Amino acid sequence: MSENKIRGGALLARALKDKGISKVFTLAGGFCNPAIEGFAECQIEVINTPHEQIAGHLADGNTRITRKPSVCLVGPEGFTNAVPSMMEAWGERSPVIYITGSSSLKRQGSGGFKEIDDVSIAAPLTKYSASITDGARIREFVDKAYHIATNGYPGAVHLSLPVDIMFSSFAEEVGLEERPFSHKAKPLAKAWPDPNSLSEVLELACNAKKPIIIGGHGVWWSHSEKNLEAAGNNLNIPIFNVPYHQKLLGEEANAYMGLADIHQYPPSEYALQNSDLVLVVGARLDNQMNFGNPPFIPKSSKLVCINGSHEEVELNRAADFCLLSDPGVFLDTLSNLKKNNKWTLGTTWFEENKKKKKEWVDKSLKDLEIEAEASKKNGGKIHPLQLSLDVQQEMGENDWLVIDGGNTHFWSEIAINIAGAKGKKLKGILHPGTFSMLGVGVSFALSAKNHNPDSNVVLISGDGAFLSGGMSIESVFYEKKPITVVIDNNGGLASIGQQQERLFKSGKSVATDFRDIPFHKIFEGFGGYGELVNKREELAPALKRAMESGKPACVNVKAKPVLSPIVSAVASKREKSSIE
Fold first, then answer.
1. Using CA atoms, how far apart are residues 386 and 374, in angstroms rounded to an integer?
2. How many structural domains comprise the chain?
């Protein structure tokens, strides 16, 4: 073994380098300096941010786009700031590696400097949370954490590296004297289906007259979205996306119908209620799926869940049938039924769903046109659905759209589906995950710009969402990345306030209003471009000027606080206050 000594932080950096980690997001602090020095020596890019939550969201955004783990490095007190980003990553199954430079291991439990129980705090929000107890085992802990984060049911992990280990010196080859002798990242393990169980599912599919596929996280993280599209096209099966999760297919894809959400995408109700087989691939039967229960999925439909890990199978115990299989393997086998002359389903069911989609799109646009004309006559503000459609109209197929907020998110999801049905193509879409975390937008937009420097990246953010995470624009200015932020400025927390008006006996909202905030002036103050838009006809030229400015830009749009269909549905009864 070499006699050369390196600090624990440098050893950590080398262990992560072996895994192919290329980016670390942080707010630099004294507890983490040896690791930062190690990353620099390993030529791993270190991105400093103004807040640890931003560091976490940037790591998450980078991971979602690349489908490769990124690192969020924080100090002990900064760890608590990063926890919200950990929850967001957990909801999206994003394999971010969180690392805390923590208080001294030697005096653990005695009230050391900045001592917190970070391992216990992170445990419910990660697949794995542990403290490295011996510097000689740093490589072992990193290897285990990486393996857990990326295999099976992917998700965030957390390692705590005590400051005394971080600064102590160790032989640079320590940890390599035991297996595994190589710590390079290995190919991901894939679950191969049991032949008998697979045959049962395929038989159900072959006998179905009105099957649908609902795709979720597992399809994205297993790189199986093309397999999903091929199965839908080859077999004439309508495809739906689980709400609020990574978009698996472009909205223009022929087999893609929209969100599996009866409120935001009403045609899905027709598909679900008339289906005889629902194949849920790589998704959970959680609250967004009504836990697999009627009326979302009717009792008359056979519900089959296909998941790539045993954890997901266990979560989907309510299904009529569960199959442990890599999503890509299953989708390819399903698609091959036609090639093997075992598939007899015609196009009638598929065309019925396409017709329902067209009817909904046409009606939505007609209703919106009537609303827009009325608004124009009385000088009213722009509808949030119209806002999102108009923004997309100015974007090209090489551009990225990011959405953030409550009502803003919901209306933009609807707009994306409508625009896609009319032929709009976008290169990528990012948005909050299952927890609807406010304030992720700027960080996700910066992540998209980092990986697509030649694309316009446009963020449509609610005013409340921007207030939650808007100071992350400092990172945008520091990195000199021109993104365009469109503020859906309705003067408050619209979705909450309008729920309150329907929920409270007084019929009034409480603590949900904002003052008139000049968001565009904030960008100007940072050295960027800003414009205020009061009328719809001002939006398109303002957006063009913003995107052509070459600077981080803000188009501050005065919009109507219109309740989205999903919020309206859950707020329709005073006693019903939850989405479930």
1. 13
2. 3
